[in-house]
Amino acid sequence: MEGKGRINDEQVNAGERDSGLREFYEKTFREIEEGEIIRGRVIGVGKELVTIDVGYKSEGQVPVSEFYTRDGKLEVKEGDEVDVYLERREDDEGIIILSKEKADKMKVWDEVSRACQRRDGVIEGVVVSRVKGGLTVDVGVSAFLPGSQVDLHPVRDLDKLIGKNFKFKVLKFNRRRGNIVLSRRAILEEERESLRKETLSNLHVEAVVEGTVKSITDYGVFIDLGGVDGLLHITDISWGRVGHPSERFSIGDRIRVKVTKYDEDTGRVSLGLRQLSPDPWSLVEEKYPVGSKVRGKAVSITDYGVFVGMEEGVEGLVHISEMSWTKKIRHPSRYVNIGDIIEAVVLNLDVERKRISLGMKQVEPNPWDVIEEKYPVGTKIIGQIKTVTDFGIFIGIDEGIDGLVHVSEMSWSKKIKNPADIYKKGQEVESIVLKIDRENERFSLGIKQLRPDPWETAPKKYRVGQVVTGRITGLTEFGAFMELEEELEGLIHVSELGTDTHKVERPSDVLKVGDTVTAIIISIDPKERKIGLSIKGLMRKREKEEMRRYMGSEEEITLKLGEVMQEELQKNRSRQGNEDEKK
Fold this sequence. Notes:
By secondary structure, the protein is of the alpha+beta class. The protein has 6 domains: about 30-105, CATH 2.40.50.140; about 120-190, CATH 2.40.50.140; about 205-275, CATH 2.40.50.140; about 280-365, CATH 2.40.50.140; about 365-450, CATH 2.40.50.140; about 460-540, CATH 2.40.50.140. Helix content is about 20%, strand content about 35%. It has helices spanning about 1-30, 100-115, 185-200, 285, 370-375, 460, 535-580, and strands at about 35-45, 50-55, 60-65, 80-90, 95-100, 120-130, 135-140, 140-145, 165-175, 180-185, 210-215, 220-225, 230-235, 255-265, 270, 295-300, 305-310, 315-320, 340-350, 355-360, 380-390, 390-400, 400-405, 430-435, 440-445, 465-475, 480-485, 490-495, 515-525, 530-535. The strands form 6 sheets. The chain has a 5-stranded mixed barrel. A 5-stranded antiparallel sheet has the order 8-7-6-9-10. A 5-stranded mixed β-barrel has the order 11-12-13-15-14.
């Protein structure tokens, strides 16, 4: 009986436990309703399903795909507690159907609803795609961000925002239709106004502030100081030369600037960047004394010279006349290019007017200082003709130094009207140094001086009445020039070309260059270096000689005839005398 009693007691206790479990399960079943979010513990992670214990008489299952993040990572493991949505309490197999995705979305909608009820109404989300009129944002559910609400200013490239996380303000939502409209601009405006108040409280002239480059124009840069925009004018960017603000800045750059002007009434703020460093001209006299050599970059070229940047904010001018000792520079751009590194000597300083005069040629010695020693008067030089002009030819002597052979120094006697008829550019010629004028940088040469002046001996070699033969070297309207010997010519005037009975109108009617003719010297003027010739005079002379010869023959015949007649007379007289004696 006792045993039976004990057994009966155990049975009674077991029955009580079963009854308690049934009551617990029944109570749990009553508390869990379909369409609610419940919390459970992960008890198994399979390839396709995640098993979750939600405290019900059977476990629930959720597709494993609902636990993957956007970048493909599985964020679930055994023991994790998760919120899930109860879709159905039991299916045909007695398993609870759960959904983590729907639970997340319901929580999002609840959060959106609470955000709208709160004063700030702010939620976070990720921009996922571009759609017509704006962007789609994932805040747990899909929401719409109109283009006008993206930023404080229109955004040209909305695609660059895709994938970025931002805070948004909920403008309106409709849970039944699943619509949510967001605004990022509203948050930025609130932040900007808050920043503006803080910035204005600390803003004053001489204050050094930090800001972000907001926009760039031709005349300067607008900088966002934190709700307040300031203008950094192009003239206040640097002590030196700035071609365009975009050379120094890009939109979004963070820079430190100094407040130079601030008008509280209008809210206008002027900024300066160069004011953060001392004016470099304050040290110019120390760093660049007159006579010192400097090195810099060619930053600007004008018609009258080149500006050389010696350091930030300090430029010097090399005038075109100070670029070369010897070269005749027509325009600085033919000698220097922008960006070239220039070596120069400081010639003059005017700190008050911020001007420095530089000289490039002074870096090297002036070649004209030693030219007289190198080429004393009388030195023979062989060089190429660099230029042919109407008044002479220029022969290259040294680098950048040309010597001039004036047309008057080309020939002792020939009248050369156009040197180009005799000399060509590039031709190699010999000459002799006549004079060097270092002050005026002139180098005089002569060609005719390479041989003796024929007029030194001409008065002894030639006399009036002398018959000479030569080649015609030139024809003019007034006569013909005939070469008596090298560098010595005589003129046959047109009036001396004909005869007493035939007058020549033009020398070219009877002569051509290259003809060999014979004439008589009718005048010699050593002072004027002129010899007058005549063909007409030669003909007259020859006529007289013929006449003389002719007249000389007649007299001889008369004399011989007289002698014969005299002899005959003598003979007759002798015969007559003999006859008389005979009688």
